[in-house]
User: What shape does this take?
Amino acid sequence: MDDIVRLGHGSGGKLSHDLIAKTFAASFSNPILNRMDDSAIFDLSGRIAFTTDSFVVNPIFFPGGDIGKLAICGTVNDLAMSGARPLYLSTAMIIEEGFPVSDLTKIVTSMQKTAEDAGVVIVTGDTKVVNKGCADNLFITSAGIGVIPDGIDISGSNARPGDKVIVSGTIGDHGIAVLSQREGLKFSVPVESDCAPLNSLVADMIKAAPNIRCLRDPTRGGLATTLNEIAAQSKVGIHIEETAIPVHDAIRAACELLGFDPLYVANEGKLIAIVPPDAAESVLNAMRQNKYGHRATIIGTVTDQHIGRVTMKTSLGASRIIDMLAGEMLPRIC
Amino acid sequence: MDDIVRLGHGSGGKLSHDLIAKTFAASFSNPILNRMDDSAIFDLSGRIAFTTDSFVVNPIFFPGGDIGKLAICGTVNDLAMSGARPLYLSTAMIIEEGFPVSDLTKIVTSMQKTAEDAGVVIVTGDTKVVNKGCADNLFITSAGIGVIPDGIDISGSNARPGDKVIVSGTIGDHGIAVLSQREGLKFSVPVESDCAPLNSLVADMIKAAPNIRCLRDPTRGGLATTLNEIAAQSKVGIHIEETAIPVHDAIRAACELLGFDPLYVANEGKLIAIVPPDAAESVLNAMRQNKYGHRATIIGTVTDQHIGRVTMKTSLGASRIIDMLAGEMLPRIC
Assistant: This one.
């Protein structure tokens, strides 16, 4: 009877308490969560970062991760991109009636492991169950709180002409890994999601250069969309070099085959940093010593030309404008 | 073309930015949200309360409220039940492809109005769109942050024998209002959800008696389940009097007709307070002067009998055990 999630598990009554005890409380157990009041309570002071994201990725298990790992990494990374040290996370699940409890346990275990890797604590949560056919397996919404160290001012509005644009590694891995799993595609070289918590990388970068201007993780919409957001927010131009952008051969081949441009494919374990020119070398060195940044490289420069626009020197030497993602290329990638 | 939400509105690209600008940013506009970085940033210090809830109510519009009002009230109330002053909220939406933009605008407007009523600010959010048939209209997950004033220690673990049990008003209104809307039931006296932000009521109560022991809003599972949770957490017995529990005549009639027990029906604008006996009168007086507590009344007492159990003296004078909700009575009520 208890091998699938039933509507009663979302009732708030005895079945809910049983499911929570067996899955969430068993995995996430910590003194703040274990109080089991309506709110988690902890002491905090300073400049606080607060963020939320819903995760609706399809399928929920994919090479290199699952929806649970993604939910933790996504929230940790959004906090880290403001320069914050991520501390406390919430997790709210919307589960489709009939979802296997064994899969739920796998996902919850994966969330706890990822939270431990990232050094964050899941302190509060919620579980709702909807009728069969009213959701697609499982949706997770996480929110997170972090503290921004004194003297750090990182924002998409801070880029200035002359700054260097750094990417922490190869692009396009996550989107292609999820798509290949969804469509049952096989490649000669397996592709894996880059899904990872980037807070240790950011901490290393800030230590090397506290004057980093912008950090952002190029998730939905990919590198191209994220750079466009920064160009618009900072009222600058951004010029990148196509040949400098790292892309795995397998991802490049898959993109060519499927008609995707890796510039627009989602990443879940990469970041873009915009740094003053004289800080670029020290930031790069720090990044390359972290396991999530060993392929970090400079891909471009902030300019005072083409304000609000991203331009790219292509591998053929031509220059073209790189727009924000216009339609929908890969739905439900995160 | 733009009268319905399309998959592209969840792409993270241009369509997402357009939808966010037209709906969320237009309604929620405030200096923290308007930075439009990956996290909201603000200063805070002290004992922090942090909570989250997903809302999957069906239908999304019902007498007395809608899913947006519910999402704000639910999160504000969870914070208030820990004694916190609610401050900042996040909102993450999972929208089914094809959902009318006009309905989204109505819900967003309702959220902003409720947030203003409650004195909280929506500072960050997320929007995902899933394929038609992969969600049911719209799900909202909100998270919230509040600050607990010095000297306040409110928890479901704090009830002690001799304490008085207070309910802030009539029970069962929300569940029956949603059910009647869902099933197209008409009653001679219209029933309305009690959905309301209770933070001003809690502030008035704390002012009257800073030594309140427990506060909890009896949502899913109703009054009976919530009292059972407190009895278990505090390791006490709770004894209530059926004739003391306020129930609207229309709700009582509807429950009799439909075979529901109002003790188990969800409320979204009511709270249970457990207070030391010598504080009961001053708390009651404070509650009755607030518009959300004018029917507040004492319904029972905490005892050292039947530890972990709730007992009730029925209207016929018998005594019976009131269990936690066992199965699922009214799915998707919040």
